[in-house]
Design brief:
The complex is a heterodimer of chains A (about 575) and B (about 475). Chain A contains 30 helices and 5 strands. Chain A has about 575 residues and is mainly α. The longest helix of chain A has 28 residues. Chain B folds into 3 domains: about 140 residues, no CATH class; about 230 residues, Hypothetical protein af1432 (Orthogonal Bundle); about 70 residues. Classes of the chains: A mainly alpha (about 575), B alpha+beta (about 475).
């Protein structure tokens, strides 16, 4: 009977705890302003209010994984990391009391503290401290902290204090002045006050800050805190020559970690003025020999991560142009020490302008090592490989060529196109030329076109046969105009006089069957690249054609030939 | 970062009621009942009460844990209203009142009698179990025809015990000793203990600043650094509280103050405790301690805002308002001190000056230390903060030995109550017929003060004397 009554009495409290858990869960799942959170908190506040207005207070005992009221469980939940009782118990909270008058904002703050409990350890904080900081008026909690409970106060600690007081009071009693006992008669009071207190009332403080109350509290703003901290760090760097050794300035040195943390905070902001200050000051200190050479680089290389670079670039366009410029300036300034981060950022950059920006930064940087690119060239994502190929192209290191040769067979045409462009940058070496010639058989027209242009630019007589084979292929007339032009142009640029018979034949009408006009026009264009009188003669003949398009193309080719505008294969890829 | 939020209309209304009650009692101590100012104060109080009566026809004003409540809501004070709030808290504490319940229909006349009683019959024997006083108050009120107000007794359970204060102080000392072995807290457990202990110090300070203030006068010379760190932490929190800092900021201030001198652990003890003057090289060694402290705190773990503040405070605490002092600044970037740095600079100097040291031929009395701060306000120290500090400590801070105009010798045991003149502390009589009794120098007979300070004495060159009653260390207290 008693047990039944107890259970019935606990029912409202069980409902409160259930709702507390829901609110705690919702707070973790949804943003703070989400209606689900508001509803959950509203229900909880309502339940608590109705209980407290009747009962005055609600006292809960906190056990390892459950909450009890009057010894009866009113809350338990698995798994443990989500269990509110466990979160509190872990931090030493052993009881929790809600008092009548509890305000909604206190309920919300309390639930928020619980919801953030698991993240607090990351910032070296704890639930008890967070609750303590809230300074609740209507929520009490008891923390079983043995240190403060007195159990671990060493025996005699308080005795030492008492003895100190007694000893010193004895000294007073035996001291001159008191030993003689009281004087007789009334003495003169010290007056007026022997100091000019009015000096405390005059003017502002020496720092020019406001009064020592409300307005001065704004000194505590977070931005000021980081700036004050940074200034102190820079002073320490420049002051303490004792620490001028590698251990004090290493990656793990406290000073380094602190500076890295400041830069990270500024990057999160972002605070460009702060970042510029760090750059400028550390550069100066390095130049003055007050910190080791390369210290700025060490700090920046740790703070500027790919993720942060990505976030900075993502903000471009959302910010005012001056800030965008400052971002670019900063990233350019730190690019010598942040290659890895920039590379990583490039790997995941999906936005075209961000990618372009990163590539610019990397290309303008101190140069990459092939090892840094090797894994990217193997990546399964096409755009990662494409970006890496583009960077590899800028390296001008022949060791890259075998990688490009392999990637010539990459399944994605976008990668293969970049490979051809990159190959074109490595000059007319036999390996490059062979690779380009082999690419003329690529399944993708745009790739073949680029390869043909590259060959036309680079020359290489050995490739003449490959080009001729393409031109004489059965499907050649059916290929896209750009490819046709590129192949004929490249062939003309390499074969020169030897190309004349073929080109002469190709601009003319076929006796049997139609030759596409695009092919005929391309042949005329290619003829311009053959610097010979015979080629000029062919073009002059074509310029007299009855077909206006042929006539115009021939005249244009003549002009191009005279002005030297016609490059083999349509110019450098 | 600023945790203080503006009050909502309901809070403002509660605040107005508290201020009106405090103002009415205060006015009653200066003006005669028939004075128009007095009448006006009671009329304002009555009007505000009328706007507050709940459905049950009552409104309660209570004090719990050094906070004022109207009904069930705690009314927050601000820097601007702190003095009046504190006055009301002291008034309630002295009378042993937890709650005053005003019943609808209470007249302005009854309110006048109430505030006159509270102001003029105010007990002068200080704090203590005051249930009987509250009982007397009810009796007094009834005799004076005040039926619309009821005074509730102090329950005792919510009041901080002397043991709790002493334990918080001793815990801070003990933790300091343990940390000293490792210079600063290097692991999470130690950092957590540091937080807990400083939280306890802040809690105790908020509940009863004067008791903690008295404990700072103990001064254990054998463990100077530990007692200095603990004292600076307490004094900094008391000053921060008066400035209206939030509890979270006070916690950070307490940690920063506690660790501010940790760099001295790296300075050679023979230099630190050398009798006589230091040579230039030794001075250079001592002057490094702010940077050493900052560097040591940097190594404590994650760089939370609290750690950042502690680093800045450690670096700044020997800098002056004009940016002279040490360490010498080199970057040209530092143009001002932080609020926490300014606070710790003041209380650090005060505590150091009032601690007898082997190398000093003459040890400052607390009074002289206060004069030193005042003399250097505006150049070494922030003028406004020094003023606030003097308001807290008085011109004769606890621990000052004085000879009174009555011819008695006494020890200042508590600073003047908020709002009273700076030179009117409470003094424990050490000689004569009234040995052991505590007198309030603000007591008057007519227009004349009963006692004043005739001179400050410094027997045996002790400087400051413990202003605590040794009995507070007994478990029963």
């Amino acid at each position: 009977m008693t047990e039944q009554r107890t259970l019935a009495d606990n029912r409202p409290v069980t409902a409160i705890c259930r709702q507390l858990h829901r609110a705690y869960r919702d707070m973790r799942l949804y943003p703070a302003e989400h209606p689900v959170v508001a509803e959950s908190l509203g229900l909880l506040a309502g339940l608590l209010d109705s209980y407290l207005s009747e009962s005055g207070l609600l006292l809960l005992e906190v056990q390892e994984d459950q909450l009890l009221q009057d010894g009866e469980p009113v809350y338990s939940h698995a798994p443990r990391p989500d269990n509110m009782a466990f979160l509190m118990f872990r931090d030493g909270i052993r009881s929790l009391t809600f008092h009548a008058g509890l305000e909604t904002r206190e309920v919300e703050a309390f639930v928020r503290c619980l919801a953030q409990a698991n993240d607090l350890t990351e910032s070296d904080h704890d639930l008890v401290t967070r609750l303590w900081e809230q300074d609740f008026s209507h929520i009490d909690y008891y923390v079983a902290d043995p240190f403060l409970g007195g159990e671990v106060l060493r025996e005699g600690t308080i005795d030492v204090l008492r003895e100190t007081v007694l000893r010193r009071l004895d000294q007073v009693r035996s001291g001159e002045g008191l030993a003689g006992g009281p004087r007789t008669g009334r003495l003169q009071a010290i007056r007026p006050t022997p100091v000019d207190l009015s000096r405390l009332d005059s003017g502002e403080s020496a720092t020019g800050e406001g009064p020592a109350d409300g307005s001065q509290r704004t000194v505590d703003e977070a931005a000021d805190l980081v700036r004050d901290f940074l200034v102190v760090l820079l002073e320490i760097v420049s002051t303490d020559s004792r620490n001028y050794d590698s251990a004090s300035y290493g990656e793990e040195a406290p000073l380094t970690r602190a500076l890295v943390r400041v830069v990270e905070t500024y990057l999160e902001g972002p605070d460009w003025a702060g970042l510029e200050l760090v750059l400028e000051q550390l550069q100066q200190l390095e130049a003055q020999g007050r910190c080791p050479a390369g210290y700025l680089g060490l700090v920046m290389s740790q703070a500027v991560t790919a993720e942060r670079v990505g976030r900075l670039l993502a903000r471009e366009g959302q910010e005012a142009p001056p800030d965008t410029e400052r971002a670019k300036r900063f990233l350019r300034a730190v690019s010598p020490w942040t290659t890895s981060a920039l590379l990583e950022a490039l790997v995941v950059a999906e936005d075209r302008s961000a990618r372009k920006h990163l590539l610019d930064l990397l290309e303008s940087g101190p140069g990459l090592a092939l090892e840094q690119l090797a894994s990217l060239l193997e990546d399964s994502r096409w755009y990662v490989v494409r970006n890496a190929v583009q960077l590899a192209a800028g390296m001008r290191d022949s060791a890259v060529v075998p990688h490009l040769e392999r990637l010539r067979r990459h399944p994605d045409a976008r990668v293969r196109r970049e490979v051809v462009r990159a190959l074109g940058g490595f000059g007319a070496g036999p390996v490059v030329l062979r690779a380009l010639a082999a690419t003329l058989d690529d399944e993708d027209s745009s790739v073949r076109t680029l390869a043909a242009r590259a060959l036309g630019w680079l020359g290489g007589r050995e490739q003449e046969t490959s080009l001729l084979a393409q031109v004489e292929a059965r499907d050649f007339p059916l290929r896209p105009q750009e490819e046709v032009e590129a192949l004929l142009g490249a062939y003309a640029a390499i074969a020169r006089e030897r190309a004349l018979p073929l080109l002469d034949k190709m601009w003319r009408r076929r006796l049997l069957g139609a030759r596409p006009l695009a092919v005929r026009l391309a042949a005329l264009k290619a003829l311009a690249a053959v610097p010979s009188a015979a080629a000029q003669a062919v073009l002059r003949e074509a310029a007299k054609s009855g077909e206006s398009q042929i006539r115009k193309a021939a005249m244009q080719a003549l002009q191009d030939g005279q002005s030297g505008r016609s490059g083999g294969g349509g110019g450098r890829p | 970062m600023n945790a203080e939020r503006p009050p909502d209309p309901l809070e403002r209304s509660d605040q107005a009621l508290v201020l009106a009650l405090a103002a009415a009692v205060r006015t009653a101590s200066y003006y005669e009942p028939a004075n128009a100012v007095m009448r006006q104060a009671c009329a304002s109080l009555a009007a505000l009460l009328a706007a507050h009566y709940g459905e049950d026809g009552t409104v309660t004003v209570g004090v719990h844990s050094h906070s004022v409540f109207v009904g069930k809501s705690r009314v927050r004070s601000s820097a601007a209203t702190y003095a009046r709030f504190s006055y009301l808290v002291d008034l309630f504490t002295d009378w042993g009142i937890t709650t005053l319940t005003f019943f609808a229909g209470v007249t302005e006349g009854e309110l006048l009698q109430l505030v006159l009683t509270l102001a003029r019959e105010r007990p002068t024997t200080g704090t203590g179990p005051a249930g009987s006083l509250a009982f007397d108050l009810d009796d007094l009120l009834a005799k004076r025809g005040v039926t619309g107000v009821r005074a509730d007794l102090l329950s005792g359970s919510g009041a901080p015990t002397a043991t709790a204060k002493v334990e918080a102080y001793a815990a801070a000392m003990q933790l300091g000793e343990e940390l000293a072995a490792e210079k600063v807290p290097t692991d999470r457990t130690q950092a957590r203990r540091l937080r807990r202990v400083t939280q306890a110090v802040v809690d105790q300070t908020l509940r009863d600043p004067s008791s903690l203030l008295a404990l700072t006068t103990i001064k254990d010379f054998d463990r100077y650094l530990l007692s200095h760190s603990t004292n600076v932490a307490i004094l900094a929190v008391i000053l921060g509280q008066r400035l209206g800092l939030s509890k979270a900021r006070l916690g950070e201030l307490c940690i920063a103050a506690f660790l501010h001198d940790s760099g001295k652990l790296e300075v050679l003890p023979e230099v630190l405790n050398k009798p006589g003057s230091l040579d230039e090289q030794e001075w250079e060694e001592v002057r490094r301690h702010p940077v050493l402290a900052a560097y040591a705190i940097l190594g404590t773990g994650r760089l939370s805002p609290s750690v950042m503040r502690a680093v800045v405070v450690a670096f700044e605490h020997h800098l002056r308002e004009d940016m002279s002092g040490y360490p010498r600044l080199r970057t040209g970037l530092k143009r001002r001190m932080t609020l926490f740095g300014k606070i710790v600079a003041i209380v650090d100097c005060y505590d150091a000056l009032t601690t007898a040291r082997s190398y000093r031929e003459y040890n400052f009395t607390p009074h002289e230390a206060i004069l030193y701060l005042i003399a250097n306000a505006g150049t070494h120290f922030d003028r406004k903060l020094v003023k606030t500090f003097v308001e807290i400590m008085g011109l004769y801070p606890p621990g000052t030995l004085v000879e009174l105009t009555s011819g008695e010798f006494g020890l200042v045991c508590a600073a003047p109550a908020v709002g009273l003149p700076f030179d009117r502390p409470r003094v424990r009589i050490l000689t004569g017929d009234r040995v052991g009794s505590v007198v309030d120098l603000s007591e008057r007979e007519g227009e004349t003060y009963c006692r004043s300070v005739a001179r400050v004495i410094n027997p045996a060159n002790l400087g400051q004397v413990p202003a605590v009653d040794p009995s507070i260390f007994e478990p029963s207290s």
